[in-house]
Amino acid sequence: MTALSFHRFETLMTPFSLAQGARIAVGVSGGADSLCLTLFLAQWAKEHHISLTALTVQHNLRKEAEQEAQHVHTFLTQKGISHHILFNHLPVPETNIESYARRVRYQLMSAFCEENKISHLFLAHHAGDQGETFLLRLSKSSGVKGLSGMRLQSQHHRLYLCRPFLFVPKSDLTAALQKQKISWAEDQMNHDERFERVKWRHFFPALEAAGIRASTIGESMRRLSRADEALEKYTLDFIRQNVWIDFRGFARLPVELWRQTPDEIQLRVLHQLILCISQNDHFISLKALENLCADLPSDKTLGGCRFKPHKTGLYICRERCKMASEKSFKAGTSFRWDRFIVTPFIDGFIRAGAPQKKISTIPAAVQNTFPAVFMQKMLEKITQIDYKEKNDSFVKIEFIGKNGDKSL
């Protein structure tokens, strides 16, 4: 056990390349890991002229949580660290509490960061968390991506998630706090065996005795992550070079060319296109992707998307029944609708629907998922604005997954 030093922490911060004046946040629960990260990050941010805000999410999962959050607030503000408590007002489910809490935590912190123009959110995941992730995903037959675990830096929409402690043992973090005579809170849920991650945590002593240490698991995950990055590069290269992604929110995949790629690339191409067209990040299992891959080309659905074979290629569009419902709008107010950003210059409404003039080269099922915009002038009937061509004089519609060319 070696107490984490500030000099070592500065080295851990090197990969994140933050410039002076950057605005960053850190998630802090009051536990040893996040408290240690917050204190080191506060010192580092001050020396590098960077604005830091600490965020605590109050899930309402335990009676003691509110008192603990207030204690964290008092402790950090006394040290001159800006701190906000984010309250969850959603009802707590009876099952899958772990995934629920994680989802709420990211939603609340991401929303705060977006509202306050914060670009990077720091999280205190450490080597032990990474090892638990490996065992958890191994038990579910994960592939290379799943077994590579969490990344030092990943992206959640426009927010960068940074994990400087990812390969640091928890004992080094607690030793650093003990050295400064700082106490921390112990979340009793970390010992509750109803949660799957806690069950795997209890296997570590036996694994250590067998010579499988958290550090060796971490090193293997680092190498798997390296392989995953290479596979991801080849996947995106294939999509950029061969897949047509249309501004109306669908994609066309050349099936024969796709079939010539290795199986792993085929699966990853499908996964990336589902994420691009659906514009949601719901979990899709590797098994479900493998089943889809085996059945194509045929009319299938997965992840809110429909796969529709056609003589011109395999089309990937939104599953009509999973799309956003009809929405009315007023001129001058931009909003998100399904997978589009809509900026109207008239009053009207938008819903899923085919253009007035049908397109022979695109399947009808795909055209029925286009954004259909309607306007209504005083004393005139409702009129559909044909979206076959962009008409920015009435409304501007931008597909979120489109960058103006064939790339994601």
* Strand segment tally: 18
The third-level CATH topology of the largest domain is Rossmann fold
* Main CATH class of the largest domain: Alpha Beta
What is the straight-line distance between the termini?
45 Å
User: What proportion of the residues form beta strands (DSSP E)?
Assistant: 15-25%
Helix content: 25-40%
CATH superfamily of the largest domain: HUPs
Q: Quickly count the domains.
A: 3
Based on the coordinates given, report the CATH architecture of the largest domain. 3-Layer(aba) Sandwich
Tell me the radius of gyration: 24 Å
Shape: globular
| Sheet with the most strands, sense and barrel status | 6 strands, mixed
Give the strand order of the largest sheet, numbering strands 1, 2, ... along the chain.
3-2-1-4-6-5
* Rounded mean pLDDT score: 88
Number of helices: 14
